[in-house]
Write a structure and sequence with these properties.
8-stranded mixed beta sheet, 22 strands, 11 helices
Amino acid sequence: MAAFDIIVAGAGPAGTAASRALAMCAPELRVAVIAPSERRGRGEGRGEILSPLVQPVLRQLGLWPTFLAQGFAPSHRTLTSWDQAGLTASELLLEARGPSWRVDRRAFDGWLTAAGCPAAERVDAKVCHLAREADGWSVVCDDGNSHSARLIIDATGRARAALADRQGARAKAQDRLIAAYAEATTSGPAAPELVVEAFEDGWWYTMALDQGRRAFACMTDADLARGLRLNTPDGWRAALARTQFVSALASKIIRLEPPRLIPAGSRYAATTAGFHFLCAGDAASAFDPISGHGVVKAMRSGVFAAYAACDCLARGDAAALDRYGAWVAREAAAYATTLSEHYGSVSRWSERPFWRRRHADAPSRNPSSSLLEQ
């Protein structure tokens, strides 16, 4: 059995940010990152826009120059049709924090994992059992090996079998949002902007990938997706035909891959901090993709989880984990309010199930600034 000070379960943005921050603030601690080498499968989409807030987080981690060297494309504006018939452009050319960034998530995650923290010991496995001990935790992995740690950071994402869930603290799903995601090869030059368009049963987004490919996603609730047959090419195309701007870009499709359904709903862990245990990233709280902050939020929470772990173990600050849990709760509450206001600003289809569900909790019908711009 290998003994560590801290085990980080998960090697996505949250886990990698946590392990790197740990090496920077407490290099004397022995850290292991436990995660399968092939983290991202076909159940996830590649197209992603990183908000301008990614720059200060990567600078904090000392990774900004190497991020720029990867050649990811800046995105200076978003085109949105939300509660109006036309398109509105959100320009980022004069944004003090810089542009958004259009990335292939597989490439981004691969770079981040490789550059993130070579100092941590990497265990190519999945945690399958976690048990509390008198002075920490014991961990059993699916490769048959066991490990121990004084503290655990759960960065396993929104997976149904997240470690916090296994401790009896089931995450609370705040909605049933799902993405019907498909990638396509298109003809002609690709429009670089992210395009977001609301329709009667949810909203769509599309963005350019690479080599003449585009990502398309229909965001709706799981029960509505079944009724619309969004997991079938015919149902997916029928829903696409009910848009104006996204369907215009889709008219250039030469070849369409079969759509697949990806969970995308908001959720919040019932327990984000406990006895030498912290949740980070989507394991703590998962944001609606309309926020545009999923990856940045995950990395930031990984950094703060690392700081709390360092304060607890290296500095003997017993209250550090509770402060982290309170911060996660405040962030989730502020997000829920802003999200409700943003969805509540759409009045065009107020009687349709998707929008009616979100209007029920909206505190205001006044249009708010787009979550995509924050």
